[in-house]
Amino acid sequence: MKTFQQPLSKGEEERYLYLLKHGNPQESQEAKEVLIERNLRLVAHIAKKYQDTDVETQDLISIGTIGLIKAIISFDTDKNSKLATYAAKCIDNELLMMLRTKKKLSREVSIYEPIGTDKEGNEISLLDILKQEQQDIIEEMNTRENISQLQEIIEKCLNKREKEIILLRYGLITGREITQREIGEYFGISRSYISRIEKKALLKLRTEYERRRKESF
Predict the structure, then answer these.
(1) Shared-domain flag, residues 83 and 128
(2) 202-213 confidence digits (pLDDT tens)
(3) Residue 117 φ/ψ, nearest 5 degrees
(4) I need a labelling partner for 92 at 20 to 30 A (CA). Which of 27, 60, 100, 213 fits?
C-alpha cells in the first residue's frame, strides 16, 4: 500500500498557499504540487468511507484527488479557515457524484437494442453510436443510460495510463468531463502529452470497435 507524506504544518501550509496565489508561475506550480502531495493522506482517509462499493481503492483515490485539486485551486484564505476542512467537503462531493453517476449508468443494454432517437426521429442503437468518429463515440455513449460495452473494450484495449485519461476526460467515472489541462495538472505532465495519449487511446478503441463489427457479420 502506498505511503503518503505527512500533512504540512500550519506555517508551511500558509506559505505554500501564499505562493500559489502570489508567486511567479514556477513558484505557483510548485506550491500546488506540494499542497496536493501533502494532502493525499486526507484523500485516502475519505476514500475509505466508500470501500464497500464496487469501485477499486485506487480509482476512489484518483477521483478524490480531483476534488482535492479543485479545493486547492478555489480555496480562499480570507473566507475559509482551514484548507483540510474545505478540501474534505470537495473530496467527498466528488466521490459522491461519481458513485451517483455510476449507479445511474449501471443498467445493462444490448448493443443492438434501440436506446434513443436521432435528430430525425429514427431509432439508434449502441452499434450505431460506435460507428461514429472517435471523439463522438465517447461523447455519445456517455449520454446514454449504459456504457458497459465501452467499459469492456476500455478494460481490454487500454493500458493503465490510457484508461485513466479516457475515463477522466470523458466523465465516465465522475459524470463530468475533465479538461486536458486539468488532467495534465493531476498527473504532472503537459496538456499536449495528455492529448497525444488520448488520441492514441481513441484509435485503439476505434480499431477494436471495427474488429467486433466485422466479426458480427
Answers:
(1) no
(2) 888 878 877 877
(3) -130, 155
(4) 27
Alpha-helical regions (H) of the chain: 10-22, 25-37, 40-47, 57-74, 83-104, 126-130, 134-141, 148-157, 160-169, 180-187, 191-216
Interatomic CA distance for residues 82 and 106, integer angstroms: 37
How far apart (Å, rounded) are the C-alpha atoms in residues 77 and 96?
A: 26
pTM: 0.54
CA distance 105 to 97: 12
Tell me how far apart the 2 most distant CA atoms of the chain are, in Å: 66
Contact 83, 75 (CB under 8 A): yes
Q: Are 92 and 82 in contact (CB under 8 A)?
A: no
d(Cα 169, Cα 187) in Å, to the nearest integer? 13
Q: Looking at the DSSP assignment, which residues form a beta bridge with residue 123?
A: 117
* 84-94 tens-digit pLDDT: 999 999 999 98
The pLDDT > 90 percentage for the chain reads 24
Rounded to a whole number of angstroms, the CA Rg of the chain reads 20
Asked whether the beta carbons of 176 and 168 are under 8 A apart, the reply is no
Query: Which of 58, 77, 104 lies at the terminal end of a domain, its last residue?
Result: 104
Instruction: Establish if 126 belongs to a structural domain.
Output: yes
Residue 140 structural domain: 114-216
CATH number of residue 159's parent domain: 1.10.10.10
Residue 117 pairs in a beta bridge with 123
